[in-house]
């Protein structure tokens, strides 16, 4: 089942510089689709367009067969509950003045009247927070701490817990391990894979790290200068017909 369908998406900025040039792809339910490319190629801009943080110039974005590219804020409300994002820098994602438990409860508080939770249950704030911390393999004692009291890996686990707290269907992972040490990177990738399977999530995994993309994804897209130059199943990475830029990335893999 197609969860997300993007067709001929275009985006330009000032001076008519094209950032996204005829981007088309599909994301299946329960799939991790990797997006790899060098810095500045348009990966994060694509993420913001999919999240409807930025408008597109032309093209279409379908979420479960519903066109969302022209919806206003009120019409987007149900969509925003079903899609979340995990960013590169967890420190920038967490309010330094809020305790962890207050950051974690915020999405639930915003959407609670429209939620029908399946994997989590809300009987009280404390039990709900405990569930979220357990699922990202953190002790419940962290709930009363502030972000600066946690390690980088722990903070990223908190942002993941917050993203899954309202049981979305689709999560954009925008360089989620780039700010972490090697050991923490591997642990976070394993956690994300386990959560995808347990919660039936779909990911767009954005990275410049081809090794991480290969580990996480069932299919891979390669972006260069605002264009998707290659798309293939994971096991086809080393096939001879790969695009020359893909082969260049493989050479430094």
TrEMBL record:
Matches recorded under InterPro entries: AAA+_ATPase, ABC_transp_ATP-bind, ABC_transporter-like_ATP-bd, ABC_transporter-like_CS, P-loop_NTPase
Protein species of origin: Priestia filamentosa
Q: For this entry, list what GO says about its biological process.
A: transmembrane transport
Keyword match Nucleotide-binding? yes
Keyword terms of this UniProt record: ATP-binding, Nucleotide-binding, Transport
Q: What is the protein's given name? A: Dipeptide/oligopeptide/nickel ABC transporter ATP-binding protein
Q: Which domain of life is it from?
A: Bacteria
Which Gene3D superfamilies does UniProt cross-reference here?
Answer: P-loop containing nucleotide triphosphate hydrolases
The entry lists its GO molecular-function terms as: ATP binding; ATP hydrolysis activity
Q: Which family would the database say this protein is a member of? A: Belongs to the ABC transporter superfamily.
